[in-house]
Specification:
The complex is a heterotrimer of chains A (465), B (353) and C (292).
Chain A: H1 2-10, H2 14-31, E1 49-56, H3 69-82, E2 90-97, H4 102-115, E3 120-122, H5 127-139, E4 144-147, E5 162-164, H6 169-183, E6 189-194, H7 197-209, E7 215-221, H8 231-239, E8 244-248, H9 251-263, E9 269-272, H10 279-290, H11 297-304, E10 311-314, H12 325-337, H13 339-345, H14 349-368, H15 374-384, E11 408-415, E12 421-423, E13 426-428, E14 430-433, E15 438-439, E16 448-449
Parallel strand pairs in A: 1-2, 1-3, 3-4, 4-5, 6-7, 6-8, 8-9
Antiparallel strand pairs in A: 10-11, 11-14, 11-15, 12-13, 15-16
Chain B: H1 3-9, H2 16-37, H3 40-65, H4 73-90, H5 95-117, H6 122-142, H7 144-147, E1 153-154, H8 166-190, H9 192-202, H10 204-209, H11 214-240, E2 242-243, H12 250-264, H13 270-292, H14 296-317, H15 321-329
Antiparallel strand pairs in B: 1-2
Helix pairs in contact in B: 2-8, 3-8, 3-11, 3-12, 3-13, 4-5, 4-6, 4-11, 5-11, 8-9, 8-11, 9-11, 12-13, 12-15, 13-14
Chain C: H1 2-32, H2 39-55, H3 60-83, H4 92-113, E1 128-131, E2 134-139, H5 140-162, H6 164-174, H7 176-181, H8 186-208, H9 220-233, H10 238-259, H11 264-278
Antiparallel strand pairs in C: 1-2
Amino acid sequence: MRFRARRRMGRAGLWSRTIVAGSMGLMLGVTLLPATAGAATTPGVTSSSITIGATVPLTGPAAPGYDEIAPAMNAVFSYVNAHGGVYGRKIHYMYLDDGYNPANTATLTRKLVLQNNIFADVGSLGTPTQSAVQAFLNAQKVPQLFIESGCNCWSNPKYPLSLGWQPPYTVDGKILGAYIKTNFAGKKIGYLSQADEFGQDVVKGLDMEIPSSSVVSRQTYDAATLAGPLSNQMAALKAAGVQVVVLATIPAATALAMLPAAVIGYFPQYVVDSVGADSPTVGPLLSSFAQKGGGTAAQVAAAGGLLNGVITTAYFAPESDTSNPWVQAEKNILQQYAPSLYAKTGLDGNTQYGVALAYTFVQALQKAGKNLTRQGLLNAINTSGKKFVTPGFVPPSYSSSVHYGFLGEEVLKLSSSAPPAVTPTGSWIGGVAVSPVVVTSPGSGPIKKYTGPTSVPPKSLSASG
Amino acid sequence: MDPATIARSVRLPRQPLLRHLPVALAAAAILYVVTLRLSSYDVYQVGEIAAYIVALVGLSLLTGANGQISLGHGAFMAVGAYTMGLLMNHTQTNFILELAAAAGVAAAAGLVIGLPATRLKGPYLAGMTLLFALAVPSIADKWPATFGGDQGLTTTVPTAPGSLSAEEWLAQIQIVVALIVMVLVANLLWSRYGRAFRAVRDDEIAASLTGIHVARTKVTAFAISAGCAGLGGALLGLSTGVVNTGEFPLTLSIQLLAAMVLGGTGTLIGMVWGGILLVYMPQWSTSLSSDFNLGNGANAYLATIIFGVVLIVAMIAAPNGIQGGLRWLWGHRPHLGKGGHGAPAPVTAPTVD
Amino acid sequence: MSLFLDYTLNGIANGMVYATLALALVLIYRATKIINFAQGAAGMLTTFIAFSLLSRGLGYWWAFVLVLVIGFAIGAATERILIRPLHGRSELNPVIVTIGLLVVFEGLAGAIYGNASRGFPAAFSQSGLKVGHTTIAFSHFDVFILIAVLALMASTLVLFRYTALGLRMRATAFSREIARLLGVRVGVLLTLGWGLAGIAGSLAGLLVAPTSAFGPYYMDLILVYGFTAAVIGGLESPVGALVGGLISGLCISYVGGYLGSGLEPLGALALLMVALMARPEGIFARPPARRV
């Protein structure tokens, strides 16, 4: 009897609950009013516009630095649009924040494709994130262009609509490894790499060149649980007597490796993958060592120069090379068409990356011609990719069988005697080339010197290119 | 109107299963029609909501009915998703068995955590589950060869029958699983096990005096709840198409807890609201922030700020969540939990609402 | 052998940081039996305020003290505005409210300051101390952290054990109604407790920032490990916070060093489970009285 009384207080009848269940379904149906427009002949393309989309980390722990790339790309598109667009079509770039979570990427990419009808997915970032949508995009016949990741996996005949852009991490590793083999022969080498695909691919490349007997210590760190300095790893490297430390690290980890090493007075020769070697990005993280805190002048000088002598690679002219016409063009575009971004970050590795990627895409659009289709765009890249005019030292390597972008780099040394990179946040150490530009594939092929021409910025990026 | 009178008048039995089934079947029929009418993207999202509902129902059982706070349910989702992913990639197991295995392995993980959890009070349990949420993805990161690394493990949905599109078929699978889980958990909560859960929540000593084995009850609740989360994780892995650790950050566990509370702790239909919030709130916030058109960085973070503010305001103003608010609107006065013992749910008998 | 010494010193250095946050959590839990999940994020926000002050040219120690005061204010305001209305409700409510606050703080920091990489200066030199001819893995700044944490813990102990104010705070935590009946101004003391915790949280933020990737999320993992430290030591014991921090820091350092990086969370989880199986209320907790 008490049971029934309690039921009276707390339970609704069968009908009310059925109504709830039913209205729940109906409400869902009503709130999600389908938004499909009539299907265009080519989705995302009208006579006056092209709509492209991307998923990038704008918030979250993966955002620092990478959130600059998409706005920098947009600056180039604004420049192109201001000059009439490509064949009269203005580029409309929708980039959404996936927070580096592949579940979000899957949802947002479907939104872009199924709801916003993008023409192509251009410049999305991340290996786990883009792996999650590769099958979907290819099945939907949406080009997945210029993925911002150095994974070796983007050139895959199973997914012909997916293209990489930056040099694969193994290419970085091979070129750095070859330099180390030549210039640091006989020294003890140690690795500190990120414990994921990025780090493993760089190490793969390094091991192709550096004899394994020279590598006396291999340390790793997990990016997801990076809470503080990598003191243990650097202590282990020092204990093994490592004289050349190779870092396959994101910028935060580069700083969190160099700082504790400096604490224990360990100043090896650093060789750092380009992902984590951009001085305006890494410099501020290291500056705490040199700032207010006392220490002798000698210590401060040593700390400020933590990046001095770092060996890294570059596949386009670094921001400190201010006499380079590409660097000047990049600066001009950013200053004019993304002034608030430029005021915050200036020209650094990330904004350069964005401008260069956007240039590549615009070139592809131009080569695809007035009659723009998705397959037409892919064909244009496959046939004419090697003739694109981009800031890269070498032209992209696209062909119907190769879907990597840049496969050529030079070795760069950060040096206090080089002109610095000046950004709104300060003056950061610049770099000089210490090797000619070389080209190699992520496989076991040889490293060859590049003998082709150097590109110059085109006079205009609009019209019929 | 006394529900017993209604039941007599429409000649429905008093057994919970036979009461809940018609509701579920009605919902299934309506949702079937809905999935055929919606656009591909909307259908996909409805499926995601269903997947989250499965996980949330488990959490609601654990925290609402049994009073244990878990900050680690994202990790159980990961366990379930990876189980399914491993089975899909290395064996030829039947799809339904794969889902069952996902739930089972996650339930086993729930046992592992639930056993020490029996001795722990609220905040101590929260600490352990928080660390668990951090530790499980790190296992997958540590052995990338087995667990797929950055590229993760691909998941494949069984082929859709007839003229159904792949999205419709997946969403229907997810909805059916969600309805089954809801019916099962509703029946469980109405059974003597449910009464044992609530008794242990309200007063452990009194419960043990009435003959309920407190530790066993708590562990059972944990295991069942973890199994639901694992099943939800597997379903979500099907939506995403790939299982990798980036999908299960610490924030997922926190979002699950928040969604459960906003939906209505201890309720089941409240979990539907919770699932809708989880899937739709980021989009609503993003479109809201682009209306304000702040600088780009501020735009992206506005969604985060809105979420936090909603949580705070909801907890202070409407602690029983959306479902609690709806019940209050219909004239049922839900009891607030007994403050001294920290009962996190209304003391009234749980319903399917 | 020297590697073991390095791992130990690193463990102590990290452990001190966890202990600072653990102390803040203990202060709040002792006062109100609530875990403040936003403690780390509040410390992050005040450190960002310090960053702004420093870039405007304010001296380091002025900014330091000012930011501790702001931390007190934020903590006190949080209690008064957000936590007070929750009294008497289920224990889930403050968990969600503080999580909501955590999210708001991170969003605010991200919106105002953006994602860009930054460095935050340390109070003292970060070069390692010299013992004989070798430089050890412990810097002047690490010594400062050690002293600061010990001082914080000592003052907390003194406050609770030897002052009338501390006695009133303990009475309030034990039973608010009885304390009120005895004339204790319960509301003021609750706010004070949260304010003091806010100071500890701000201190933690300032001590951690120089050796972290300074951004909106840098305190997240510190909160998790600090929470672990507090739980191991006993959520009501300041000494427990320190010991728990030391144990956690050392364990994580040894696991990462000897078993390989990436296993630290598992190591911490194992440590936590072992500690809680042995003493479910923490190492330094007083044995609970059963109220039947």
